[in-house]
């Protein structure tokens, strides 16, 4: 069964550095999402992406964040200048956008900002 | 916006039945999802309700009352492996497109005891 994949599984970075988190959505999916989950807290929506542009974004998704679909398979989340509070698990999700369809989550990237 | 409430923790015994409640207040509604999340892992889809009533799927059932802004997840014949966090998530209503974000509750940590 096809799955969403994410790389790396873990990333440690210094405050102020740029990080790029990578996702490969399921191949016939059209809608892509990023969520984050700070340790011990709820899963929070960051951004949705469709037809090569951002569809919706939350208040968390400020100018430090950007998303890109650089080719036909990858979907990336870039954090330009990381802060300590960006430490979290970042989940990518995708779906076809059907009425009763769930979003399929990848295994996540655990980001630690020191 | 969305506000979703669920109990923080529940404990039950192997073989028993447990009901996890979720209440929501939303500005738009296009379905309610239940996910299971083991520590350090991605949410995995359990059930979806968009109309009032009960949806049954093996040992798991989910109920929705839109007028009351209320849902529950019922787990029967509990097994040790059911120990996990159970997340209630509401999908937004959007005027166009289907890239609808999910808003998650904080999750209910279920512990199944032998």
Quick synopsis:
The complex is a heterodimer of chains A (114) and B (114). With 114 residues, chain A is mainly β.
Key features of this structure:
heterodimer, A: 114 residues, mainly beta, 7-stranded mixed β-sheet, 4-stranded antiparallel β-sheet, 0% helix, globular, B: 114 residues, 6-stranded mixed β-sheet, 5-stranded antiparallel β-sheet, 11 strands, 56% strand
Order of helices and strands of chain B: EEEEEEEEEEE
Which term fits the overall shape of chain A? globular
Strand tally of chain B is 11
* Helicity range of chain A: under 10%
Largest sheet of chain A: 7 strands, mixed
What would you call the structural class of chain B? Answer: mainly beta
Mean pLDDT of chain B: 92
How much of the sequence lies in strands of chain B comes to over 45%
User: Which ranges of chain A are low-confidence, i.e. pLDDT below 50, for 5 or more consecutive residues?
Assistant: none
What string gives the helices and strands of chain A in order?
EEEEEEEEEEE
Overall number of strands of chain A: 11
- Broad shape of chain B: globular
Total count of helical runs of at least 4 residues of chain A: 0
Question: How much helical structure, as a percent, in the residues of chain B?
Answer: under 10%
Which value, in Å, is the CA radius of gyration of chain A?
Answer: 13 Å
Largest sheet of chain B: 6 strands, mixed
Largest interface: A-B, 28 and 26 residues
């Amino acid at each position: 069964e096809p799955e969403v994949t994410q790389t790396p599984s873990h990333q440690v970075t210094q405050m102020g550095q740029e990080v790029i988190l990578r996702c490969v959505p399921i191949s016939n999916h059209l809608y892509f999402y990023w969520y984050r989950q700070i340790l011990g807290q709820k899963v929070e929506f960051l951004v949705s992406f469709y037809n090569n542009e951002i569809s919706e974004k939350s208040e968390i998704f400020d100018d430090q964040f950007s998303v890109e679909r650089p080719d036909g398979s990858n979907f990336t989340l870039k954090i330009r200048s990381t802060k300590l509070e960006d430490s979290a698990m970042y989940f990518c999700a995708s779906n076809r956008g059907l009425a009763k369809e769930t979003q399929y989550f990848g295994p996540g990237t655990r980001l630690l900002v020191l | 916006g969305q506000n979703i409430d669920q109990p923080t923790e529940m404990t039950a015994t192997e073989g028993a039945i447990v009901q996890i409640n979720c209440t929501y207040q939303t500005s738009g509604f296009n379905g309610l999802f239940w996910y299971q999340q083991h520590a350090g892992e991605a949410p995995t889809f359990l059930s979806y309700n968009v109309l009032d009533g009960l949806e049954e799927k093996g040992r798991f059932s989910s109920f929705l009352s839109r007028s009351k802004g209320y849902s529950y997840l019922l787990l029967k014949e509990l097994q040790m492996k059911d120990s996990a966090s159970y997340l209630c998530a509401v999908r937004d209503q959007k005027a166009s497109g289907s890239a609808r974000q999910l808003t998650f509750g904080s999750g209910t940590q279920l512990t199944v005891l032998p």
